[in-house]
Amino acid sequence: MTYDYIITGAGPAGCVLANRLSEDPDTNVLLLEAGGGDWNPLFHMPAGFAKMTKGVASWGWETVPQKHMKGRVLRYTQAKVLGGGSSINAQLYTRGNRADYDLWASEDGCSGWDYRSVLPYFKRAEDNQRFADDYHAYGGPLGVSMPVSALPICDAYIRAGQELGIPYNPDFNGRQQAGVGFYQLTQRNRRRSSASLAYLSPIKGRPNLTIRTGAPVSRIVLDGRRAVGVEIIASGRPELLVAESEVIVTSGAIGSPKLLLQSGIGPADHLKSVGVKVLHDLPGVGANLQDHLDLFVISECTGDHTYDGVAKLHRTLWAGLEYLLFRSGPVASSLFETGGFWYAEDEARSPDIQFHLGLGSGIEAGVKKLKNAGVTLNSAYLHPRSRGTVRLSAADPGAAPLIDPNYWADPHDRQMSLEGLKIAREIFQQAALKPFIMAERLPGPKVMSDEQLFDYGCANAKTDHHPVGTCKMGVDDMAVVDLSLKVRGIEGLRVCDSSVMPRVPSCNTNAPTIMVGEKAADLIRDLQPLPPAIFADERNDIRPRARQHVQ
């Protein structure tokens, strides 16, 4: 079969590109997804997230032993479904800090990817329920709304943050990022607004778009220095698919370097060591892995203040019925609806700690669940200096990759992570939360010294599911793609997903990945970029015009 564009992965960026590229009726687009469709109702119910990190529609991968965390092996959830991570995440809509993207441009050589240049692409994607200003827009494909099932403990948490000196912030994606408040969520009409639902569902009838699930790509096919198609495994047999214009790799920060490596594109020494023929020596493939590591406090509640009790069968059934009839109740909650951004380091360029308030205990896989109702506060250091790798374990495309985030390789990351954990503990100790919190259970009152907290972190830390950087764009020798996301040294091949980010944004990475997809679509179509953002305080006349009275 022959197509103009073949897209290898229906994650957030892949869905965006399938939509935008197929807008041209004369262009044939094929979107491939190794996993299945998002037909299961759990994908669309906001609280379905609680099941997702426990094996539903994920690859079941894990890290290699982390040598700076006493050999700990961490579960590493990567999605295997239409919509990718946007179909199984907690639906938090965060974009990061302006400084993140300005550093991409100023320090990583990625001109055209500064904040003013990427903000219009965030806005183009967005259909915001509440905000329409310099930072937000409505009418785009992606539903963005405010939580509808917040509990009283959420407001108490926001008050507690203010008692500690962290200001209230109504919009983490606006003028400033710092503060505590409610997250905006990728939801529309109280259902998850995944990239699949936002970008694919409305256009599945386009005759020039083909979507194939259950179609893992085993390799990119090269003719000399040009990508001419891909090989997939269909019904256990290889099948060749031809791309006349481009192959676009959108398999994520783990899957994209894995696919390049098993296609013979990557560092020659590594490819030879696993028996893969070297077709293009590109040393940066699979390097520069960055991720946010999450430490958490879990406290027991004084009563039924969170959703832990909903796990009882009769309450689960009632919650499901309430959602089906009224789109309200526990099932309408993403379970992580409040949080914030603050500073562990006084000299930080921007907030370097992110908090997520979890409305229960044991929400995510591998996290302890209390016998009675509990509440969780996650903290993650946002500016890690540690860099890891993605490598092949074997030449077989079906073999799991070797994922090494190399957490805490830089001692500064460890120090700042522990500072963030201490701030989270302090928030839970504030007066506003006294009516809701009985006592801290993890780490627990006996864990106080930095050495004890380090041991606790080694035993309990988890990924925040924000890997990036493994096919980074840039101009240095380790860059995998150029600023148009073309793979260096190969024609007809681009990478367009979170793997191209030179450094991890200070946030959850779903919205930034969708932005990459939006901007990539214009680059591929050779369109003029959207005009850079201009803010109200930079205009000559910022005073609102008075309305004229109608006589």
Topology:
Blueprint (H helix, E strand, L loop, with lengths): L1 E7 L3 H10 L7 E4 L16 H4 L8 E2 L12 E2 L15 E2 L4 H9 L8 H11 E3 L13 E3 L7 H12 L15 E4 L1 E2 L1 E2 L2 E2 L2 H6 L8 E4 L4 E7 L2 E9 L2 E13 L2 H11 L2 E2 L1 H6 L6 E2 L11 E9 L11 H14 L9 E7 L10 E6 L15 E8 L7 E3 L10 E3 L6 H18 L8 E6 L7 H11 L1 E2 L29 E3 L14 H15 L27
Parallel strand pairs: 1-2, 1-15, 2-12, 6-7, 15-26, 16-17
Antiparallel strand pairs: 3-4, 5-9, 8-19, 10-11, 13-14, 14-15, 18-21, 18-24, 18-25, 19-20, 20-21, 22-23
Give a quick set of tags describing it.
about 550 residues; Cholesterol Oxidase, domain 2; seven-stranded antiparallel beta sheet; globular; about 25% helix
Describe the structure.
The chain has helices at 12-21, 49-52, 98-106, 115-125, 152-163, 195-200, 252-262, 268-273, 313-326, 411-428, 450-460, 510-524, and strands at 2-8, 29-32, 61-62, 75-76, 92-93, 126-128, 142-144, 179-182, 184-185, 187-188, 191-192, 209-212, 217-223, 226-234, 237-249, 265-266, 280-281, 293-301, 336-342, 353-358, 374-381, 389-391, 402-404, 437-442, 462-463, 493-495. It is α/β, with parallel strands linked by helices and 551 residues long. It has 2 domains: 1-66 and 74-140 and 186-289 and 467-533, 3-Layer(bba) Sandwich (FAD/NAD(P)-binding domain), CATH 3.50.50; 148-182 and 293-383 and 408-460, Cholesterol Oxidase, domain 2 (2-Layer Sandwich). The strands form 8 sheets. Strands 1, 2, 12, 13, 14, 15 and 26 form a 7-stranded mixed β-sheet that branches. Strands 8, 18, 19, 20, 21, 24 and 25 form a 7-stranded antiparallel β-sheet that branches. A two-stranded antiparallel sheet has the order 3-4. The model is unreliable at 540-551 (pLDDT under 50).
